[in-house]
Amino acid sequence: MSARSLTLISLLCLFTFGLQAQIEDNIIWASVKLQKKLDQKTSVFFEPILRLNEDISAYENSSIDIAIKRKILKDFSLQFLARTWFVPDAGDRQFLWLDLSYAKSFKKLKVSSYLRYHWALDIEGRTDADFLRWKANLFFLTKGKLQPFIGIEPWFRLNGAGELQRVRYEPGINYKINKALLLTAKYWWEESINLEPGFKFNIYVITLTYTLP
Length: 213
Hints:
This protein is mainly beta. About 10% of the residues lie in helices and about 65% in strands. It is built from one helix and eleven strands; from the N terminus they run αβββββββββββ. It has one helix at about 5-20, and strands at about 25-35, 40-55, 60-70, 75-85, 95-105, 110-120, 130-140, 145-155, 165-175, 180-190, 200-210. It has an eleven-stranded mixed barrel. The protein starts with a helix and ends with a strand.
């Protein structure tokens, strides 16, 4: 299957999800990610993120991600990520995430997955939930600059709840601009599970990644 066909399939998934979901809001996440490889096993990145909601018409909030990743086995790595949220009129938020990641490439496919411990610090009088999150992505390897992918991420609520409370479905595309620049466009159809009232969102995620020499 050609890169064009795979890209069209990804876009069709995005459009179909958007039509089927009874959406409460359309949201965009836009970010610039700077990453640097420290050695053969260790890398770091810094990523500020801007979010717009109310059908992409109003500023919602922003955050900064700082992470370090270390390869521990042939196909496995550990990552520690800190996200600081800046939320207008609602109090800032702080998340700490520990990821155990797995990635393996085959002839025309790449499988990528992580198990994330999502720890939310309760600060400024705000209580946030903790989760175990499992994400799985399937990348379609092509010879060109476009790389389509699909993914899913269920969220299992801790704090005594012991149940699934959220899931994300994720079609997307990577576009390699040059050796150092990568543009990623992906769509999250995100919905609640076992919550009343529930929620459903369209979230459009645009990331420009620059790999420092």
